[in-house]
Amino acid sequence: MSPYPSLVTVSALILYFVVTINVGIARAKYQVPVPQTTGNLDFERVLRVQQNTLEQLALFIPALWLFSTYVSPIWGSALGAAWIVGRIAYAWGYYQAAEKRGPGFAISSLSGMVLILGSLVGIILSMVK
Q1: Which residues of the chain register pLDDT less than 70?
Q2: Quick check: 71 and 119 in contact, CB under 8 A?
Q3: pLDDT at position 1
Q4: What is the reported pTM?
Q5: 10 neighbors 30 (Cβ within 8 angstroms)
Q6: Cis-peptide into 33, omega within 30 deg
Q7: From CA 67, how far away is CA 50, in angstroms rounded?
Q8: Is the CB of residue 77 less than 8 Å from the CB of residue 61?
Q9: DSSP letter string over 49-78?
């Protein structure tokens, strides 16, 4: 098996770790005590990035591995790298203003959908053979 999907998986987990750390930093910066999750819009955007990234990881990681197994580890890894770039753009934009999250969301959503649908096609084709 190719090491590239593993590298993409670790990169995605590092990205999640970074956005999680950003929540702790934002708590201190905007003085939002635990367990409070509302009250400061700047903090709420940072928290939303972390929550949305976690939600997306539940779809992304299995789709990455299924695509890499049934279609192509190289193409799966390239789509996975695009997903990571999209999530970084999403976070960067959302940290600034909610309206700026769109391009990153589009990039990560499109690459994620290709991974999911491609996995389905690859699995079906392997069953037909």
Answers
A1: none
A2: yes
A3: 75
A4: 0.95
A5: no
A6: no
A7: 25
A8: no
A9: HHHHHHHHHHHHHHHHHHHHHHT-HHHHHH
